[in-house]
Amino acid sequence: MITLPMIIGGKPVDKEEKIDVIYPYTQQIIGQVPKGSPEDVHRAVEKAKIGLEKLKKLSSYEKYRILMNVAHLLEQKKEEFAKTIVYEVGKTIREARTEVERCISTITISAEEAKRIHGEYVHIDSVPNGKGKKGFYFREPAGIVAAITPFNFPLNLTAHKIAPSIAAGCPFVLKPSERTPLSPTMLCQLFLEAGVPEEAVSIIPGFADVGQAMTTHLDVRVVSFTGSLKVGEIIAKQAGLKKIVMELGSNSAVVVDRDADLEKAAKKSVLGGFAVAGQVCISVQRILVHEDVAEEFQQLLKEEVSKLKFGDPMDEKTDVGPVITVDEVNRIQSWIREAVEKGAKVVKGGIACAKEKTVFQPTVITDVPEESKLFYEEAFAPVVTVKKFRDIDEAIRLVNKSNYGLQVGVFTNSINNAWKFIQQAEVGGVVINDIPTFRADNMPYGGVKGSGIGREGPKFAIEDYTEIKMVVFDLNA
Fold first, then answer.
1. I need a labelling partner for 332 at 20 to 30 A (CA). Which of 94, 135, 310, 380 fits?
2. pTM for the full predicted model
3. What is the pLDDT of residues 62-84, one digit of tens each?
4. Is 394 an annotated catalytic residue?
5. Is 188 a catalytic residue?
6. How many alpha carbons fall within 13 Å on the CB side of residue 242?
């Protein structure tokens, strides 16, 4: 049993009421944390005001050194963190180790960006009333950051919010997913151990009331949220005049053109469709295949899916672990039934395991109608759908027929077709000859439409965590 405190202004706090952390694979309680309240949020924000003043006194180099210390401490505890992620998320041990490595990289990049928060000289005398004046701007901390993170990448997505926050000089109040509060709390402990001013660090596990207290607090200046579109819309309405950064999911498409490398496209699509049991914002969900190569591609896809081993996430050979809850299994099955009733065909999987009720077999479904949830909603499950298209214009139409727009992957050897997608796809990122699941932690990552506002990636998050201050000198005699 892993028991951890909440942290308010750098101090551990325990409470009588607890949140149980459930291992998705066995449904057993493996951890507990205190259940936070709006009152805890108010206390944390008061502490954060002190933390803001302390962070302002740190030099860029000092913030760099602190964040590098965090990365070094995490490097020493990689396996401990990886196993904790398996127990709270249910992702495979290999996937968990990858997440820890990515987290180290995210923190390291944030450390480097702490030394690159630049301003710019402004040619004020380029306008008629600017003669004799000189000016420049620089960036300063925006203020207290409220960070809310999801269950699927509890460590690295936490790092993507709190490491740039410290690099920018902003204290944070963090609410992790109530399902996965363990590794985020452990990470915050490393931030304190590395030398972040204690008042600048708070983590409050809890539910919607905690999130609402954070996002509506008048002294919070930035809200950074990763989660569902439904919750994102609520936060946007209640946050008021704050800087908002949101990554709200997708139903990402892969396009396989007639001249594509079909074997590569099939292998990559399986990798992107079933990692973390499909519980990834940029998971491959919709595969659009040119009708001339659809039959051959579907056969390759089925062969690749057949190679996947699903089950115990602690088994080094397991490729696909459980989904987060039994309720999610029931939802997935209802979506599949709806699609089949409208004409779709299940060609692989489609059912949960009899013994491990949260392990859903890797599933391939063809001929999914555009009006079914599996096409227009975010499945967040180990399910990929395959649909034919006649020409590239139809493929672009199908990609854009979505309320989401995070990333798209396009397999093609035609530079013209690749460029058509770059110009016309309504998404935040176009990945040519790879899957939309690709993300480098230093790139600007985010979407359009219902997929969110703003971009993550340390350099780009820092832009949202800082404000521009303009300085003008009148040198007229």
1. 94
2. 0.97
3. 999 999 999 999 999 999 999 99
4. no
5. no
6. 27
